[in-house]
Design a protein that fits this description.
Helix content is 33%, strand content 20%. It is built from seven helices and ten strands. A hairpin with a 4-residue loop joins β9 and β10. α4 packs parallel to α7. The longest helix has 20 residues. The chain starts with a strand and ends in a 5-residue tail after the last strand.
Length: 272
């Protein structure tokens, strides 16, 4: 029987400090701290949940949910992420596809995928020795039709059951929700940040009320957090896996020069 030993979420962009050197360093240190916490749990498998930014999927084919099934992954290298090879775990991914199908989720298996920054940034800060097998889990938050946070939360619950019920040899698994927070992309409000909305998400998660995110519709998220805020679905998936655990906010900065609210959380998970 496997075990979920770590559940975290973090924003996944990173830019130049410009005139915000101290804020940039606080974000960087927050990301490093999340990496340290995940590594301290000693996972055997690292699931990272994110959107694809039209680098592997295109405008012709939009897949609601997909999972990487390769033996290894080489990042695309955008946002300056080092291009190096990371191991995958085909057996874990294939088993998840089959298990999820029995629970009403038709995950698309991806044989050839080069993770962009949505997967690659958190992977680089966690998987520093490139020795923990990576399983990319994609939720389409870029092109309509967008899966709801409810559906993403339910997928996280399926992932947790799969780890608990189907995995042999007491595998230790970490899950990362990657994306957000509020940002408007190529819209009239581009550059806006809704700090109140961002901090409300962190507060809910800290109090063990993260399941409230599952009630949010794409339309309500766009109104409060922008179209980029739709990436919070990846956090909802992580929260579904973590259950009713409480958490701690690791960092938050309204990075106006990057046009996004940057934040990260770590759930209180027993890793013993």
């Amino acid at each position: 029987m496997g075990k979920l030993v770590s559940a975290v979420a973090t924003s996944h962009t990173f830019g130049l400090p410009d005139n915000h050197i101290e804020a940039t360093e606080r974000v960087a240190e927050g990301m490093r701290e999340i990496g340290r916490r995940v590594r301290a749990a000693k996972p055997d498998i690292l699931i990272i949940v994110s959107s694809d930014h039209l680098t592997n999927f295109d405008l012709d084919v939009q897949i609601p949910f997909a999972v990487g099934m390769a033996d290894g992954y080489e990042p695309l290298g955008d946002l300056g992420v080092p291009v190096r090879r990371y191991p995958g775990n085909r057996g874990f991914a294939a088993g998840l596809v089959q298990f999820a199908s029995n629970d009403g989720f038709d995950l698309v298996g991806l044989e050839r995928v080069r993770p962009d920054h949505g997967i690659a940034v958190p992977n680089a800060m966690i998987n520093v020795h490139a020795d923990v097998p990576l399983v990319p889990l994609y939720i389409n938050t870029v092109m309509e039709t967008i899966p709801t946070c409810k559906r993403s939360y339910e997928l996280g619950r399926v992932v947790a059951r799969y780890i608990r019920e189907q995995r042999p040899n007491a595998e230790r698994v970490a899950i990362v929700g990657s994306g957000g927070l509020s940002h408007w992309i190529c819209m009239p409000d581009s550059g806006r940040i809704n700090e109140e909305w961002d901090r409300g998400i962190l507060d809910r998660i800290a109090c063990g009320q993260g399941r409230e995110l599952a009630t949010w519709t794409p339309a309500s998220i766009i109104e409060a957090g922008g179209n980029g805020g739709l990436e919070i679905a990846a956090w909802a998936c992580m929260l579904g896996a973590a259950g009713d655990a409480t958490g701690s906010a690791i960092y938050y900065e309204p990075m106006h020069n990057w046009w996004t609210g940057m934040g990260g959380v770590a759930m209180h998970i027993d890793a013993a």
